[in-house]
Hints:
2 domains
Amino acid sequence: MERPSITAKMLVSLRLRQILLALVLLALLAGGIALRHFTWRETTHLRFQRDIVNGFYWGSQTLAVGRRLSPGEEGDSWATFARGYRALYDRVQDDAYENNYYLDYPPLRLLVMSIWAKEVRARFPGAE
């Protein structure tokens, strides 16, 4: 029997190392994806609770400002909503101390949060 040449041994060894490396990388990738999914599920309350509360607060502020500016109109009409939406940024600017504007929502996001708060309050009147 012939002995395998040194070149053949090195090629087999190299090929074996490449296969093992690929398997290890595949296992790490699968483990990382599984860990990411687990972390996503377990930290839901940390990610979304504050954002939901903040969004509902600013949406409600839009409605409150609108009601204050429209005392004779129906509580949460679209006209009241529009007045509150336009006036909220002015109120925040007037109340700002040393240019610290505590409203961190751009106009479109504030609009979405305000519509959401309006709809929630229409369906669940006691929601705060």
